[in-house]
Design goal:
- Helices cover 75% and strands 1% of the residues.
- By secondary structure, it is mostly helical.
- A two-stranded antiparallel ribbon has the order 1-2.
């Protein structure tokens, strides 16, 4: 009887979690799936239109540019946002003093509300008194139109995204590094391995699973980038920073075309599901 009571308590807590997922995650996904095949303004009765929303979205001139920008942003964000936190974690793991303070400093950007961080960088990127142009002026370099030029706008968004999200990834990597048995490093040192060889033959193999998991999570997160283009560039200049998530927002809340917005959201979700399934298969094979 005691075992049954304990199990009922556990199932009770589990049901509460499942209810939260059902209301705030699964129901919106199911509603979006249905919405993508309808024409509605969310007030009048919806009209079933089949695949018309998907066809209309795919024929939009901004559709291809949005996917291109999203893929480019994801790739460049991974180059910075995937490698930089790992390098920072390696450095923090080797330190013997002020480690707790430096962890706090690295994690601090995550504690800021995203809107606050984005507005802070909006001042940094200001072509007049902005901090970044002042730094360039100090080194006698020409000022840049960070957010007003199609050549630098996307790079500017990547800088913001990397700074905002680096702290959490760094701490996850640091926790994985601290679980590596020190005997492996000692054996590598006895064999004459330098720091780069120790990282290659000890650190990376021992953290392979967490690296694969973080790769999947960061790709899923970066492909849904919205706050940065919405707050900093509005998709400009010349659609240089229009992403799939931002175009979906425009369809739904600017053009009041909720069906087309849902269709675009379904396309993005299918792409992410395919990638996640492929990534999980790689992870399962790595465990085997």
């Amino acid at each position: 009887m005691g075992v049954l009571r304990r199990n009922l308590t556990a199932y009770g807590f589990l049901c509460a979690a499942l209810a939260c997922f059902a209301v705030f995650a699964w129901y919106p996904m199911a509603r979006e799936f249905i919405l993508s095949f309808q024409k509605t303004n969310l007030v009048d009765p919806p009209t079933w239109v089949g695949l018309d929303n998907f066809r209309a979205v795919s024929q939009d001139p901004a559709f291809g540019q949005a996917w291109l920008n999203t893929v480019e942003f994801t790739f460049l964000a991974l180059v910075c946002g995937y490698a930089v936190p790992f390098v920072v974690a390696l450095v923090l793991n080797e330190l013997r003093h002020a480690r707790a303070y430096l962890r706090f400093v690295v994690y601090l950007p995550v504690m800021l509300p995203p809107i606050v961080a984005v507005l802070l960088f909006k001042w940094f990127f200001d072509p007049g008194p902005g901090l970044f142009n002042q730094i360039l002026g100090f080194f006698q370099l020409p000022a840049l139109a960070w957010l007003d030029s199609s050549a630098t706008a996307l790079i500017s968004l990547i800088i913001v995204s990397t700074w905002m999200n680096m702290g959490a990834a760094t701490l996850i990597y640091l926790a994985a590094l601290q679980n590596i048995p020190p005997e492996l490093y000692e054996a590598a040192e006895l064999d004459g391995a330098g720091i780069l060889k120790r990282i290659r033959h000890v650190t990376i193999p021992q953290t392979r699973l967490i690296l694969l998991l973080m790769l999947m999570l960061q790709i899923v997160a970066t492909m849904q980038v919205f706050i940065e283009p919405y707050m900093l560039t509005g998709g400009g200049p010349e659609n240089a920073t229009v992403t799939v998530a931002y175009l979906m927002y425009q369809y739904a809340f600017t053009y009041q075309n909720y069906g087309a917005g849902g269709a675009l959201g379904m396309m993005l979700m299918i792409v992410l599901l395919v990638f996640a399934a492929f990534q999980l298969r790689l992870t399962r094979e790595d465990k085997a």
